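Treating backbone geometry as a discrete language has practical consequences that deserve illustration. In the encoding step, the backbone of a single protein was reduced to a row of integers, each denoting a local shape. The amino acid sequence and the backbone structure tokens for this protein are reproduced below.
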Amino acid sequence: MRSKRIVHTPVLLHEVLEGLDLKTEGSYIDATGGEGGHLKEIAKKVKQALGIERNKEQLARIQELELTNVVLEKGNFAEIEKIAKKHGFENIDGILFDLGLSFWELVHLKKGFSYKKDEENLDMTLDETGQEKASDILNKYSKEELYEMFSRNAEEPKSEKIAEEVVRQRRERKFVNVSDLKRAIDSVFGAEDRRVYSRIFQALRMQVNNEKENLEKGLEGAVKILKIGGRLVVISFHSVEDRIVKKIMKKNNMELITKRISRYDDMSFERSATLRVAVKKI
């Protein structure tokens, strides 16, 4: 038997398990398998669970945990309703969405997710579906399209100036790696600004992976397969995500029973996390 690896402890683990209100005979779904940290703990307390993960390397890492009562599926959580029904998961007791990148993804995929890795290529794809890379977007989008992306996905006040600078700089040199994008941002602000870096890199990653649309579809699908009294638990890491979560919960007349905001220091790879737990009423 293979030795089981050490699992990175996910953020708000205790609060997530409490929010799911785990019952031994219940059915639960982790829509964002990640490194398997949540799934491992859920599996200890319930009869069966379903884990969804879109990245094949991370899915393989979850498989290494040998969770015998967990069904795993490679897929996008936007298709959660279809995936759940495929495996016979209906009238679900609890569903979890942890919307942050895992520590392993940031460190090992080397796709330019973090502004701290100057040498990494601007890829930012989370799976192998053939979508545009971040560098493609920076080198092809019009100034207006770049402005709309930065302002919509990052709510960056200087989105227009950053878009103009990207277009100006790519005439002389195509955007390839992390340092290229930071150079364009620095030209607008006159100095390094890690908060702006974070917002702009976030905006690009969201665009590459169609994250806003996938989140809306995934949450709507999750509500449909939850049983009455079932719980939806979502951890988001910026206001754009949290606004979508709040909207879907309100639209479906769910009762919000927990909201918690946790903030981390600059050494953490996540700046803050918002946990929402809601119950399906009708």
Q: What stands out?
A: The chain has two domains: 13-104+213-279, 132-208.
